[in-house]
# Entry
Amino acid sequence: MLDLAHFSTGREVKSLWIKDPLAILADGADRGVVVRNGIIAELVPRGGMPTTPDVAIFEAAQHVILPGLINTHHHFYQTLTRAVAGASDCELFAWLKTLYPIWARLTPDALESGVTTAMASLMLSGCTTTTDHHYVFPPGLENAIDVEVAVARQLGMRVVLTRGSMNRSQRDGGLPPDSVVQDEDTILADCQRLVDTYHQRGPDAMIQIAFAPCSPFTVTASLMKNTAALAEKLDVRLHTHLAETADETRYCGEVYGCRPLDYIEQCGWLSSRVWVAHGVHFLPAEMARLARARVAVTHCPCSNQQLAAGHCPVCDLEAAGVRVGLGVDGSASNEKSNLIEEAYGAWLVQRARYGAGRVSYRDALRWATRGSAACIGREHELGDIAVNKAADLALFKLDELRFAGYGDALAAVVQGSAHRADRVMIAGRWAVEEGFIPGLDLPRLIARQNEMGRRLQGG
Ligand SMILES: [Zn+2]
# Structure
């Protein structure tokens, strides 16, 4: 097991004035923010002073402060199968068929390493809240989500862990082999157990559970329907892949006789508790239906480009009234797990599609913060630097060669493709300090992850 015995979840501060930032993505906070008891207690305006008594001070003159970034789609285990020979030049279906047999060999030790690698990468990129979509449960890995919860607690990261599932194997006309699917009763019982055991409610929740049948080509309609019913009963959110590729649209036509959105509507999934990953291939009328149902969409620009899936029509979705967030997606289709770089990717892709006048760096940051908060149903407490919101912050320095000569400090973070936060605060605790996660032995993690990846890929 990874040795995190001496791991600390960051220093707790009672009241801290993060003072005089170089720039901040908030109105009326030119002199910074005061953080107290895990929330933002005060914005300090130009010429003002904090009214909170006895504040400690963190001098932020070299820092650009953003709301903590929120990642709304990932598959942590895929960090163990980055750049796998034979998968690199495939599109989605062939890519999945190449990787399923490798993923079928996942063990709890390998998963723990992969999850730690993914979460650490995200935190170091300025991410404070992440989701994960874990849907591979081979024999021996029945407690995969429990492994993820343990790592999240050790790292002090805010998470929405989605209990993924696959029950339609090749035998039943699906894509995955029999070795990675489970039966419906087992899946639903585990969903219930995970909510009973771990799901926190309320604005300060650190661990949440959601349900996530994998996709139309890996899950039966029965499991989709019964998962939606259970989510309704337990009041948790629902997630799945949808409208990612033209192959998926064809599959739905052949197997279900309708388009992907029609299919999930028949399964009871056009609901405000749903967010879907990708949304590349929605038609205009479908966007209006998504907006009416208040279904949110996660844009995964790097993965969509790597798998040549197409480009998510983000501006059209937003014009129709759909909330859009960002996701890095799994590390087999986007190796990096770096959310600030994903914002850069979204900025580039969407400008190429819609023009420079319609997409600014501020849009990219909005997708990575407020838009993502909407995806996970937490826009009232996360995604903004405002009084009473969570003290989840990402602080970037502009002291690297890539920024030298910058003008607008906020724009420079996105346009200069920042890749590493200097400091990250989660629920009022410093989770990243001077570019490192306190207590995490990074060289040791990398060595272990390389060993686990080699073993998994080698069989
Ligand atoms: Zn995915």
